[in-house]
Write a structure and sequence with these properties.
By secondary structure, this protein is mainly β. It has 4 domains: about 280 residues, no CATH class; about 210 residues, no CATH class; about 220 residues, no CATH class; about 200 residues, Immunoglobulin-like (Sandwich), CATH 2.60.40. It is about 10% helix and about 40% strand. It contains 7 helices and 60 strands. The protein starts with 5 loop residues before the first helix and ends with a helix.
Length: about 1000
């Protein structure tokens, strides 16, 4: 055939293709199962035939790319055997980082590729020479003359198929029109070229495709439009055409110098389930990566310029591209990015309110064609992405940002991000997984995306949403802020570029007001507290609410002093065991480290006395977390404590368990309950790097029959001291406190009864050495809520029971008593007292002291009552009149229910009292008594003092009584007789 002209050879080829096609059709129809007969030679890729090479090894250069491969030859006597095992589909996975730009040249339409022979049949392609992007060379078998070597143009096609990024076409002699589909691979975003449904006419082998790096370059003019057919030597025509368009890069080599692997797989029409594979390393190896340009920059703009406000954020990474420069190198692709926001920008807990999370399985379901929400749920979306790229006609790709499921993302981190960028029409999808690492001390946020795909972009903008639950909180202080970035290109892994963004300001206070003076935020917290039912003496739930506003200092501690008489009934309530509290703390520590998920804290339900609600975040929408309050034992020197156990889980985020223990002190003089800030745990300011921004704390002590109102209706207050974080929450010395009080007043005190009973006794057995004794017992009806408690007691001893001066002189000094009563002289202990109260499970009892205060004339009587870790000091003022009468006045008795109080002052060497005369013979031994109730009711009485131990009077017998009567009668009779006798004698004279 070598003597034939080019057009004759092309016509013969056309006719041969038609005959072969008819023959193949007949052969297929002759098979009973309508499928090809199995071949004795399995289909496969010829070993060693797969090669991928570029015309230059310079990284980022715009060289020509050649892909060559061959199939196993199936011949018999030099001819194909029934043309079985024809290739059906070939798939070539080009190395990641090898980039094509289908905007560099115009496209050819399908009609232009098919062309026409003038009579309505397929003919020569009519594609513009400018649309040619390379050539293909292959061998095809002709029935008559064996294999024919063919070399033809490859054109850049107009994309007509959904899910395809680019298409290329070739026309083989007007018989075979083949389209190659280029897709962007998920994962590494490399290019995969598929040649589907290859014609079964003859067998194709020795395929070699060359794609030009600069298609419009005049260097390719000789091959532009060139068609070659040959058996023994080539015969070509139509070459030498010009592109007549600007020379723009169509291909660029990878910008990394690591090995670049290409893969090939193919199947056949006869064995469609078999996919033999081959792989090869692209040659020559990429080199001189240090020459590849990378001139990146960083832009950061928050969506607010107000201090401590909810904020979105726009972060742009800019990498200038050189795709319009045919002689330059492509810019290096971004491999790793680490963006660090300024100190002060923190994660907003409000983000978690109503937020969902994207699981790894949902992220995996994201494909180029998957509808919105079928992968990552819509409620996990927190922003959008805009990508500007020079290699697409549209120049833009859009995407979304999703919150990754905590601890289940690829990094195992608390805060993770998924970015999904897709173009369903072109089948492009880019999926990125990143992590956000908050600083454990400051909350500063560092976002990392490692191993980004090797694709070019000129601008990548990440936009976090703005709104009530924006992801970020702006700094609390005004000023200029700068973000930092470490951007590492693929060209020089491990050598990041350190960048700073232009400064961006925070220039107003919260809500657009003035910035805080001196950089210290204001602090004006509000407190609301009280009981739901203020009926005097009754039980009622108690509430305490502490609030602050955005822009104010963080809450760190608080103390609360309850009004006198507002108390709790501890009887029947077990303490939460120390082991359970420590287990809760351990769970909090371990879960905050993301290491272990433990069961809920094991405080028994019986020790639960209330609940809490904590709201945190910035803006109008806050994250809310519930908790429980438990009664516990001594803590940091306080006799009692409260344990707040709060699950710090909001939305998809679980920061573990927050355990705060509050020390409860009891005022020894008034029995007032105080939440002591100094002995309590601080309110967490930051948990696992998340600045909590606590805005609202609500505590409800709602255990039935626990909190009891006072029986006094005086106007009182619940005093609170709230501590703010100052300018630096991490510096305790920078903190300041504000006093905030809530008014409190009980009601209907007059409806309470006041019926205490008072009994006093002494012993008649007294002596000059041991003095006299006295026992006083006060009893009150036990019905809580019906009786007013005692407010004041005054008693006056009879002058027969004076104070003993030697004992008064042994009184303990006030300084020693305040320091430690146990160090007081033994002689100052003059008695013992015991009180029973229904609100404690044990009695209160202890010694009675004489205590000398320098400014008082006489030592005071101080009764120290102890029990259940609680100490109450009852102080009576002593007064001795000139007549020697002693009185004691207890001016301040705690407003607490007491069913029984007994004070015993025994005899002894240092007894408190002496005795004047024989108490057994004393008449009208009484104690003037004044009792005043907390509701103002008064009882004034002379309390009779019973004298015990006196000798009993001797009983007279009946016989002796008769004898005395007889004697008296006889005596009277004799007196009468004597009187009559005298009278007669006188008469006789």
């Amino acid at each position: 055939m070598s003597s034939l002209s080019f057009h004759q050879r092309r016509g013969i080829l056309v006719r041969a293709r038609v005959l072969i096609a008819l023959a193949v059709t007949a052969a297929l129809l002759s098979v009973s199962d309508a499928s090809a007969a199995p071949s004795s030679h399995p289909f496969g890729i010829l070993p060693g035939s797969f090669h991928v090479s570029t015309s230059t090894g310079q990284a980022g250069a715009h060289g020509d790319l050649t892909v060559a491969f061959d199939f196993l030859h199936e011949e018999k006597n030099g001819l194909p055997t029934a043309m079985f095992n024809d290739a059906r589909t070939t798939v070539v996975e080009l190395p990641a980082g090898l980039i094509g730009n289908n905007t560099a040249v115009p496209t050819c339409t399908a009609a232009q590729l098919v062309g026409s022979d003038g009579v309505g049949q397929t003919g020569n392609p009519e594609c513009s020479p400018a649309s040619q992007v390379g050539t293909i060379s292959l061998e095809v078998h002709l029935q008559a003359s064996g294999y024919e070597q063919v070399k033809l143009p490859v054109y850049n096609m107009e994309v007509t198929s959904s899910g395809v990024a680019a298409q290329f076409g070739l026309n083989v002699a007007g018989v075979v029109v083949q389209v190659l589909n280029a897709r962007v691979r998920p994962g590494d975003s490399g290019i995969t070229v598929e040649s589907p449904n290859i014609t079964t006419v003859g067998e194709t082998r020795n395929v070699s495709v060359t794609t030009w790096g600069l298609p419009a370059s005049p260097v390719h003019d000789p091959e532009r439009g060139l068609e070659c057919f040959s058996t023994n030597h080539p015969e070509c025509a139509n070459g030498g055409q010009k592109a007549n368009i600007p020379v723009n890069p169509f291909l660029s080599n990878p910008t990394s110098c690591e090995p670049h692997i290409a893969r090939l797989r193919s199947d056949s029409w006869e064995e469609p389930e078999s996919w033999p594979e081959a792989q090869t390393e692209m040659t020559p190896a990429s080199s001189e990566c240090e020459r590849v340009p990378f001139d990146a920059s960083l832009e950061v703009q928050p969506t607010t310029r107000s201090a401590e406000s909810s904020s979105g954020l726009n972060v742009s990474l800019l990498v200038p591209q050189s795709w319009e420069n045919p002689v330059g190198l492509a810019s290096a692709h971004l491999k790793d990015s680490v963006v660090t926001l300024p100190v002060g920008y923190t994660a907003n807990p409000s983000l978690a309110a109503g937020l969902g999370a994207c699981s790894p399985e949902q992220f995996e379901r994201e494909t180029a064609s998957s509808p919105q929400g079928s992968g990552c749920p819509e409620e996990s979306k927190i922003g959008t992405v805009d990508v500007e790229t020079p290699v697409l006609v549209e120049k833009h790709l859009d995407g979304n940002i999703y919150i990754a499921k905590p601890f289940e993302n690829p990094f195992g981190s608390l805060l993770g991000l998924y970015i999904v960028v897709k173009d369903p029409q072109r089948g492009i999808i880019v999926k990125l997984a990143g992590k956000i690492e908050p600083n454990e001390t400051t909350g500063q946020l560092v976002t990392t995306f490692d191993g980004n795909p090797q694709v070019p972009f000129s601008k990548f903008t990440l936009k976090l949403r703005q709104g009530a639950n924006s992801p970020l909180v702006s700094p609390p202080a005004c000023g200029n802020y700068v973000a930092q970035a470490d951007l590492t290109p693929w060209s020089t892994p491990g050598v990041p570029d350190h960048l700073s963004s232009p400064a961006f300001p925070i220039e107003t206070g919260i809500g657009g007001g003035a910035c805080p003076s001196g950089g210290v935020p204001p602090f004006a917290p509000g407190v609301t507290a009280g009981t739901l039912n203020n009926a005097a003496g009754s039980y009622s739930p108690f509430y305490l609410r502490i609030e602050r506003h955005d822009g104010e200092q963080e809450l760190t501690r608080f103390s609360t002093v309850m009004p006198p008489g507002l108390t709790g009934n501890l009887t029947g309530i077990p303490f939460c065991p120390e082991a359970a509290i420590e287990a809760a703390r351990e769970r909090a520590t371990m879960q905050n480290g993301g290491a272990l998920e433990l069961a809920e804290p094991s405080c028994p339900a019986a020790s639960r006395i209330g609940r809490t609600i904590v709201e945190a975040g910035v803006g109008s929408v806050l994250a809310q977390t519930p908790g429980s309050l438990y009664l516990a034992g001594p803590y940091h020197g306080a006799p009692l404590s409260l344990v707040s156990v709060t699950s710090a889980k909001v939305g998809p985020f679980d920061l573990g368990t927050v355990v705060i223990r509050f020390a409860l002190r009891i005022n020894p003089l008034t029995a007032q309950v105080e939440v002591d800030a100094t002995g309590s745990d601080p309110i967490p300011h930051i948990i696992k790097g998340i600045v909590v921004h606590v805005r609202d704390i609500r505590a409800y002590i709602d255990r039935p029959n626990f909190i009891k109102n006072p029986t006094s209706c005086d106007r009182m207050q619940i005093a609170n001291s709230i501590t703010g974080a100052g300018a630096d929450p991490s510096n305790p010395a920078d903190q300041s406190s504000v006093l905030v009080s809530s008014p409190f007043q009980a009601a209907d005190c007059s409806s309470l009864a006041f019926k205490p009973a008072f009994a006093v006794s002494t012993s008649g057995k007294t002596s000059r050495v041991d003095g006299a004794s006295l026992t006083a017992k006060l009893t009150v009806p036990a019905a809580l809520g019906t009786q007013a408690n005692i407010s004041r007691v005054k008693v006056e001893l009879p002058k027969q029971l004076p104070s003993r001066l030697p004992t008064l002189q042994k009184a303990c000094t006030a300084a020693q008593f305040e320091a430690n009563p146990a160090g007081c002289p033994a002689a100052s202990i003059i008695g013992h007292a015991r009180a029973i109260t229904p609100i404690l499970p044990v009695p209160l009892e202890g010694p009675a002291y004489f205590v000398s205060h320098g400014g008082e004339g006489w030592p005071s009587l101080v009764v120290v009552l102890q029990g259940y870790g609680i100490t109450i000091d009852l102080t009576g003022t002593t007064f001795i009149s000139k007549a020697g009468v002693t009185s004691s006045t207890f001016k301040t008795v705690p407003d607490q229910p007491v069913t029984s109080f007994e004070l015993t002052l025994p005899e002894g060497p240092y007894s408190a009292l002496a005795a004047l005369g024989n108490l057994c013979t004393a008449k009208k031994l009484t104690m003037p008594t004044e009792l005043v109730g907390q509701n103002g009711a008064e009882i004034t009485q002379n309390t009779k003092i019973a004298v015990t131990g006196c000798p009993k009077a001797k009983k007279t017998t009946h016989k002796k009584k008769n004898e005395r009567k007889t004697k008296k009668r006889a005596k009277r009779s004799n007196a009468r007789r004597s009187g009559r006798a005298g009278s007669g004698k006188g008469g006789r004279r």
